[in-house]
Specification:
Layout: H1 2-16, H2 35-48, H3 55-61, H4 67-96, H5 113-146, H6 153-177, H7 181-208, H8 213-216, H9 218-248
Length: about 250
């Protein structure tokens, strides 16, 4: 909750400091610059809603678990993300246009105390959300390394510590040497978000129910298969979009 409140503060900051009078006349919401720039930033949007890796943790902690309650939680989570992320994208763009930074706080003067608080709030939000990314990552690595075998408590604790330290160190190195959050988010969204949102869920569903399509429903099965194919197609297209936007034509 603390992390969510901190993130909301940063979004509100972007709304408060929005100044439509500064908008360049060439800055438009529609039509977009071109197809490849849209594909270059699409993975960021995918990653914004790619919280599937925490679905198992949330379901385990849910009291009186039923499919209906899980659906309510999932819908509430996605709806909350929409309410937060849309103004976070729109208002800084309205003010700064094509000059908006990947981290819109960087467009605001740090001489303002609310902006300084915003940087602290953003750091708090990241600290609170980081474990939510580490836990499923560590769990997946544990399963891969042990191949699902049960470990003794001491061995399991040792493996957890080693994996956690490795993940934190890798994250620290990336944070130190990567200057552009835009490229980072795009690549993460393409590799992680696309896989966890479209490719793997649909693939697993289709494979698990391929012999029982009639009872599952043909429409649902084929729609899942179609989304799986779309997810695969997006990988090379969005990858070239990232290269086009950030390397070949930066600032486009």
């Amino acid at each position: 909750m603390v992390g969510l409140i901190s993130l909301v503060y940063v979004v509100i900051l972007g709304i408060v400091y929005c100044d439509c009078s500064k908008t360049d006349e060439n800055t438009t919401v529609w039509p977009p610059a071109n197809f490849w720039t849209v594909m270059g930033v699409l993975p960021i949007i995918i990653m914004s809603f790619g919280c599937h890796m925490n679905a198992f943790l949330v379901t385990d902690d849910l009291k009186n678990r039923t499919q209906k309650r899980v659906d309510i939680v999932s819908t509430a989570a996605i709806s909350t993300a929409i309410v937060i992320f849309i103004p976070a994208m729109v208002f800084p763009y309205i003010t700064f246009g094509y000059d908006v930074e990947a981290l819109s706080l960087q467009n605001l003067s740090v001489n303002y105390i609310p902006v300084q608080i915003g940087y602290v709030a953003l750091a708090v939000s990241e600290v609170c959300s980081f474990p939510l990314q580490v836990f499923p990552c560590r769990r997946s690595l544990t399963v891969l390394l042990t191949r699902g075998r049960e470990l003794k408590p001491a061995a399991e604790l040792k493996l957890r510590v080693i994996l956690t330290v490795c993940i934190v160190l890798i994250s620290l190195v990336v944070a130190i040497f990567v200057n552009s959050l835009g490229v980072t988010f795009s690549l993460l969204g393409l590799i992680g978000g696309d896989c966890t949102s479209f490719i793997m869920p649909c693939y697993l569903y289709c494979m698990l129910t391929r012999n029982d399509i009639e009872s599952e429903g043909r429409v649902r099965w084929y729609l899942s298969a179609a989304i799986f194919v779309i997810g695969l197609v997006l990988v090379p297209i969005c990858l070239y979009g990232i290269i086009y936007t950030d390397i070949l034509h930066p600032g486009s």
